[in-house]
Amino acid sequence: MTTPDNTSDAPAEQTGVAAQDWATASADPQYRAALVDLLGALAYGELAAFERLAEDAKLAPTLADKAELAKMASAEFHHFERLRNRLTEIGEEPTQAMEPFVAALDGFHKQTAPSDWLEGLVKAYVGDSIASDFYREVAARLDSDTRELVLAVLDDTGHAGFAVEKVRAAIDADPRVGGRLALWARRLMGEALSQSQRVVADRDALSTMLVGGVADGFDLAEVGRMFSRITEAHTKRMAALGLAA
Amino acid sequence: MTTPDNTSDAPAEQTGVAAQDWATASADPQYRAALVDLLGALAYGELAAFERLAEDAKLAPTLADKAELAKMASAEFHHFERLRNRLTEIGEEPTQAMEPFVAALDGFHKQTAPSDWLEGLVKAYVGDSIASDFYREVAARLDSDTRELVLAVLDDTGHAGFAVEKVRAAIDADPRVGGRLALWARRLMGEALSQSQRVVADRDALSTMLVGGVADGFDLAEVGRMFSRITEAHTKRMAALGLAA
Fold it and tell me: What is the ipTM, given to two decimal places?
């Protein structure tokens, strides 16, 4: 996994909530609402990722490749389980918390169904990497208990590493493949941004929390900066992979 | 999970190999060949089950139901991992060991794609149960190391229990559903038997081992009795579920 080089422009200071545990932080109903949203979005994101990776495993040219994608799918399922269990622990109905994010995530996957194995690999890698970046971005804004959970899930990502080698080999063998996959990677990122913006627009409490604190209210520019950092990290990764984005 | 009532006619004595560990037992090349076949068949069976359960999860009417089927799929993937790792440990190429069983297992799943959620549940339950019965039948014929692995995998089945309750509720709500699902369960078993017989006919070493020992040669009648025991257990389970088989 490539670590995104976003240390320079990421906010270094932690907001007050980062020093609190869940019991303290969740006394603020707005923080609580934002967290339920976040856990619901992440949980459904992982469940949908499970489903799509399992589906894309069908495109695998060999049994060993199929097993690799199935392994990623299974890892996503375990992430889902942890997030769902946390929702239950804090007294929320997981289905209800996930429901608001079904349309955006299903929309993303519907718009980005890979048409072949290489597209599936690029999607697995891009998806895994963006998810890592987002988990890392969001971790700093969370109470200590939720942060621990999010970092634990993050720690278990990076299953897509196998994809890099295979994509590189395919581009070496036929450089035209690189052009097609670069377009594909751009489409993945575009669709991810467009669905994220839909969520940002719909879910005020979540969006406000994501941009660092309730006090200052909703800061669209800061959401934009977070998206930029993630996009930039994506662009660097694609370049490293031999895909000019 | 219902335990099949096959204590009366199952062979009670263990063959000589059951007292041996893998190192000793595998010195016999015919036993070794049979075991590589068995592990290959079980491994691909689990991988294919993963893939189909993940696919059938799409039919789920609720997110909670989808998560239940995804959980089963993920459990099957972990079974696959253990069996594949064992193949690697004993110096075999997992893909090569699985290859001979792809056609039969894919054939089974192709012929039994559920057309709705209830059919998917019945298939998950029937598949899980038949697999348990088969693992239990075969365990007694294995060297101590392989037996331990097979029993460990078996111990982790039974994820389909949730299906029973839902199928029963559906039949209570509309008894005609029972007739349709009874037909479906019969078709599942028929297709499973037909694909198994194809494997038995193709893979001599495996078949000979399955019926208890290399010494007496291939005993088709004993294979038949094993299939009968499994079919009988299936029939009892279906009756308990309210499906007259």
Answer: 0.80
